[in-house]
Amino acid sequence: MIVVMEKGALSAQIANVTARIEQSGHQVHISEGEERTIIGVIGNGRPLDREQIERMDGVERTVPILRPFKLASREFHPQDTIVAVNGVSIGGQEVIVMAGPCAVESREQILETARAVKEAGAHVLRGGAFKPRTSPYSFQGLGKEGLRLLAAAREETGLPVVTEVMDPQMVPLVAAYADILQIGARNMQNYALLHAVGEAQRPVLLKRGMMSTIEELLMATEYILSHGNDRIILCERGIRTFEPYTRNTCDISAVPLLKQLSHLPVVVDPSHGTGKWELVEPVSRAAVAAGADGLLIEVHPHPEEALSDGAQSLKPARFADLMRGLRPVAAAVGRTL
Ligand code: PEP
Ligand code: MN
């Protein structure tokens, strides 16, 4: 349930309601909007009498929450969450583009890509140091050396860095180098990992599992939120369907749906979402038109030589074209880029 306080409710009235809820063994989550304060009730305390709460001073009404996700829900937190990372705000007016190679392969490769995406207007550099590969015989990433190279690219370009963490024990190491911790599609329901990033002092990019529903994605965010980290960016990266012509089916409808259900920013990864570089630009436009707060795009200076995901990676010049083409789309939906 949430308790909606009256406009201009006094802090003593809010404290009274909070104390009443906590006495029943629940926790509260307070959201202070411009006009009014909303008190969310979470946890498994004794049943609360809604009418009793509604009779308390300063309370306008109570609303039962029927959905299983709470901290992630719009009802609990009506205003948009904006995740700020080193001068970049994700979830605000500007559409944020995170771009870079699937995997960090060498110093030259990551620096060349970082310079090119920065020049084209990207805001964040992506690149995997620890790669979750379907085959144990495929390139697994450079590991710690990859993290060091990402930090060197940030040093030179000023771009914040997003990179994947696959193991709860590695969270402190990856957080020491990365500005944003990526949870990959395969790990969306790795609850030990969600717990660990929930305790980390870093924003989290949480990718939708390739076989996960929207509700499962939001329940996964609940693990991170309930461990104290509310800087979460949701990522639609395509789901597995019967269609073999694309690697995944990029679910554009997830964007407005997630924005309705949740206050968290939503980005789209058209690279994994389609698996084909030719489809990345049109699907990027569709994502921005549908209200995405950002994009995650794979760019490689020589896709034909890439150690992973070359078929879906853009060359830098095509990425620059994509950025130019996106600006009018962003403007058409009242955003900047
Ligand atoms: C990636 O971003 O390179 C990646 C491995 O993505 P996903 O987890 O969505 O497959
Ligand atoms: Mn990839």
Q: Would you give an account of this structure?
A:
With 337 residues, the chain is α/β, with parallel strands linked by helices. The chain folds into 2 domains: 2-63, Phospho-2-dehydro-3-deoxyheptonate aldolase, domain 1 (Alpha-Beta Plaits, 2-Layer Sandwich), CATH 3.30.70.1140; 83-332, Alpha-Beta Barrel (TIM Barrel). It contains 11 helices and 14 strands. It has helices at residues 11-23, 50-54, 107-120, 144-157, 171-177, 191-198, 214-226, 254-261, 270-274, 277-289, 316-332, and strands spanning 2-5, 27-32, 37-42, 59-63, 83-85, 88-90, 96-100, 124-126, 161-164, 180-183, 204-207, 232-236, 266-268, 294-298. The strands form 3 sheets. An 8-stranded parallel barrel has the order 7-8-9-10-11-12-13-14, surrounded by 7 helices. Helix 3 (107-120) runs parallel beside helix 4 (144-157) and helix 10 packs parallel to helix 11 (316-332). The protein starts with a strand and ends in a 5-residue tail after the last helix. The structure holds phosphoenolpyruvate and manganese (II) ion.
List the helices and strands and how they pair.
Elements: E1 2-5, H1 11-23, E2 27-32, E3 37-42, H2 50-54, E4 59-63, E5 83-85, E6 88-90, E7 96-100, H3 107-120, E8 124-126, H4 144-157, E9 161-164, H5 171-177, E10 180-183, H6 191-198, E11 204-207, H7 214-226, E12 232-236, H8 254-261, E13 266-268, H9 270-274, H10 277-289, E14 294-298, H11 316-332
Parallel strand pairs: 7-8, 7-14, 8-9, 9-10, 10-11, 11-12, 12-13, 13-14
Antiparallel strand pairs: 1-3, 1-4, 2-3, 5-6
Helix pairs in contact: 3-4, 3-11, 6-7, 10-11
Phosphoenolpyruvate binds at residues 102, 128, 132, 184-186, 207, 237, 272.
